[in-house]
Amino acid sequence: MIDVKTPADHPTTATTSKRDPEIVPLRNYGRWIAAVASLLALVGLVGSLAKNDNLHWDVVGDYLFADLIFDGLGTTLWLTAAAMLLGLALGTLIAVMRLSSSPVLYGLANAFVWVFRGTPLLVQIIFWGYAAALYKYVKIGIPFTDVTFFQAETNSLLTPAIAALLALGLNEAAYASEIVRAGIQSVDPGQAEAAHSLGMRPGLTMRRIVLPQAMRVIIPPMGNETINMLKMTALVSVISAHDLMSNIQDVYAQNYQVIPMLVVASIWYLALVTLLSVPQAWLERRYGRGTTRAGHVSPIQRLLGGTMERLGKNSKEQNR
Taking the model in full, what pTM does it have? Predict the structure, then answer.
């Protein structure tokens, strides 16, 4: 017969089991030394820039909130938004075409991606800016006949802003199509098969079943593409599209204060990129719910969380 002893027969074990063992993290002194050295280097760099008279901080302050700068910011923002909308809409269509069983649609989609991803964006911007040298008029009619429904001069239609929008949007569509295609292919094919068995058409299945699940894969790189688009709008200054960088160049072409004006541009680009990072992080958390990476926390969040946890334990011990 086995003698089963209750926890009361072992008072020492019962008493010690009430206390959880304290977990002491490994102290990594090399990490702290590297962090302190990095902070000292950063403070030294900032101090050196702040004391550098060649930066002409008075010029930076005069132009930081100038009307000309705000006009350029408006153009930069609408170019970014419009180009991303055009690129995402067209890129989604091209991604679906690349996944199509039709060899014609597949070939056209591949040709589009090959051309616009294989040539530099700067070349495309200049090409659209000077498209009038190739076609003087834009005509819409019946091919190989004299029937014309619409005709206009290319220069009147392709203003610098429209040319910049076409170059940025079409270039983005080539990259967005690859991102969307990767997101669609990340969804289990059984999801579409189950939808088809319920009588859903392919178009409805793509909109209601596949694309919502693919957003978890699409959102992070697409957020990076949006930030890159904001910065790539600076390239349209070569065709004088009156964006932020174009107006900055117009100013330092007159006052010859190149570095201070570039500091003004850098401050505004950094501010806009910081603002765009907030909705990107929110969307990543929203569409990443239920996955292992959705619970990822940054080192700062871990530090703050660990500090609050230690404070909570200390307060509990004091209450006891």
Answer: 0.75
